[in-house]
From TrEMBL:
InterPro entries: SAM-dependent_MTases_sf. It comes from the Bacteria. This is Methyltransferase domain-containing protein. SUPFAM superfamilies: S-adenosyl-L-methionine-dependent methyltransferases (SSF53335).
Length: 229
């Protein structure tokens, strides 16, 4: 078993920082509390957060209600998190949650905008698939340009196999994006992780790619890319 599996597999029960992050939403409307609880359950936040540096300025692009940013901040006291999203309503709930803690701020940002850096790390968790492939590539380029020397880019997206996991995810995303409109976006484009990895290598980054889908119904993949110092 790899280190990553050990981090991610012992159930999905939140650790202390996860409990503290979820508790930030205790006075939020039921729909928001349910949404963040489902995000914790379905996404491998612990493994994604473990790929971030333990200190420094970190930006999450497409932070939604902000649970991942909150968790990343609460799990390492040296991290200062800024989350941005195109969805004003989600950002309002994220800002309400962030009032209960420090080292955590949220702001609305238009699509394609990357806040001024330099950032020690930037992270995307299930966001890029909502953009066409060409827009994914240019957003990644823009983000890499805002990283500090030696900075880290962390991308968690879905893979394109096995077929049954892809089908499961497609049904879920069709409901979420096109039917219930819980997630902003009009279509989705699941780019193979090897393609994303290639784009980042073309930008001169050193890239590691790992699967995170063991014991999970979603085809989670993690890409960790580092800029040279
Ligand atoms: C599946 S949610 C993930 C939210 C959060 N990262 C998490 O892991 O819980 C996808 C988020 O991406 C946001 N989003 C979609 N297109 C975006 C864009 N072009 N720029 C920034 N955020 C975007 C949506 O508003 C939504 O909040």
């Amino acid at each position: 078993m790899s280190t990553l599996d050990r981090q991610d597999s012992p159930g999905r029960r939140p650790d202390a920082a996860g409990r503290a992050a979820l508790a930030l939403y205790r006075t939020a409307p039921l729909a928001v509390r349910a949404h963040v609880a489902v995000r914790w359950w379905s996404a491998p936040f612990r493994a994604v957060a473990a790929a971030l540096p333990s200190s420094g300025r970190i930006v999450e692009i497409g932070c939604g209600h902000g649970l991942f940013s909150a968790y990343a901040a609460l799990s390492a006291p040296g991290r200062v998190l800024t989350g941005v999203d195109i969805d004003q309503d989600k950002i309002r709930h994220a800002q309400a949650a962030a009032r209960r803690t420090d080292r955590l701020t949220f702001a609305h940002a238009p699509s394609g905008a990357v806040p001024e850096g330099p950032w020690d790390a930037a992270v995307f968790v299930d966001v890029l698939y909502l953009l066409p492939a060409a827009a994914q590539r240019s957003l990644l380029e823009e983000t890499v340009g805002r990283l500090a020397p030696g900075g880290t880019l962390v991308v968690k997206e879905m893979g394109v196999e096995p077929a049954w996991k892809v089908r499961w995810n497609t049904v879920q995303e069709t409901l979420s994006v096109k039917v219930l409109r819980i997630t902003e976006g009009s279509s989705f484009d699941f780019v193979p992780p090897a393609t994303t990895t290639g784009w980042l290598e073309d930008l001169g980054l050193v890239v590691e790619h790992r699967r995170l889908d063991r014991h999970r119904v979603h085809a989670h993949h993690l890409i960790v890319a580092r800029r040279g110092a």
